[in-house]
Amino acid sequence: MSYTVIYAGTFDPITNGHLDIIERAAKLFGNVIVAVAKNPSKQPLFSLEERTLLVKQSCVHLSNVQAVGFSGLLADFAVQHQAKALIRGIRGSDDIEYEIQLAQLNEQLEEGLETIFLPPAVQWRYLSSTMVREIYRHQGDVTQFVPPFVLNALKEKE
Ligand code: COA
């Protein structure tokens, strides 16, 4: 389909699980905007600029994907970018209640704004940015979980 969809998250940092969802969305839709949320409530390790750059670097092989930082409501961001739908990854049953709540609220904030759920590949089912940071903090090897640019960025944060 040749329309624009948005995949939003904090991406602190982007993981291979996120990238898997982005690659699937890029095959299905004309344009994918990866919306990197400022999200001060999470006190991110990487700044908004750093997180956005890491998403950009990790998606250079995908010509119809762009990364944009945002603050404020996701529904407003979607309107500004004329997006038809939001993409969300559903990793398992634990994600479903929360995701349906988000989808309904976003549709109430912006009528007609749909949410499309995509399951990530099974090997990323238990992955999250917090887990990557946690493993790395304890000197664990995160090579299999993140794109190469993220590995370097984590080393620079030491
Ligand atoms: N692979 C790996 N990890 C994944 C994943 C996947 N496919 N999908 C989700 N995750 C992880 C994320 O990395 C995140 O991990 P973390 O908590 O360790 O950082 C966790 O699962 C939760 O992900 P998510 O629910 O996407 O949270 P988020 O913080 O990344 O993004 C926003 C949430 C930004 C989409 C949401 O807060 C938002 O829309 N904010 C804007 C304000 C707004 O409009 N609010 C009203 C919404 S109704």
TrEMBL record:
Organism, as annotated: Actinobacillus ureae ATCC 25976
Quaternary structure (record): Homohexamer.
Amino acids binding ATP: T10, F11, H18, G89, I90, R91, E99, W124, R125, Y126, L127, S128, S129, T130
Keywords for this protein: ATP-binding, Coenzyme A biosynthesis, Cytoplasm, Magnesium, Nucleotide-binding, Nucleotidyltransferase, Transferase
Official protein name in the record: Phosphopantetheine adenylyltransferase
Biological processes per GO annotation: coenzyme A biosynthetic process
Family (UniProt): Belongs to the bacterial CoaD family.
Localization per Swiss-Prot or TrEMBL: Cytoplasm
CDD domains, A to Z: PPAT (cd02163)
Site (Transition state stabilizer): H18
Pfam families from the UniProt entry: CTP_transf_like (PF01467)
Cofactor(s) required for function per UniProt: Mg(2+)
Organism domain of life: Bacteria
UniProt EC number: 2.7.7.3
Pathway listed: Cofactor biosynthesis; coenzyme A biosynthesis; CoA from (R)-pantothenate: step 4/5
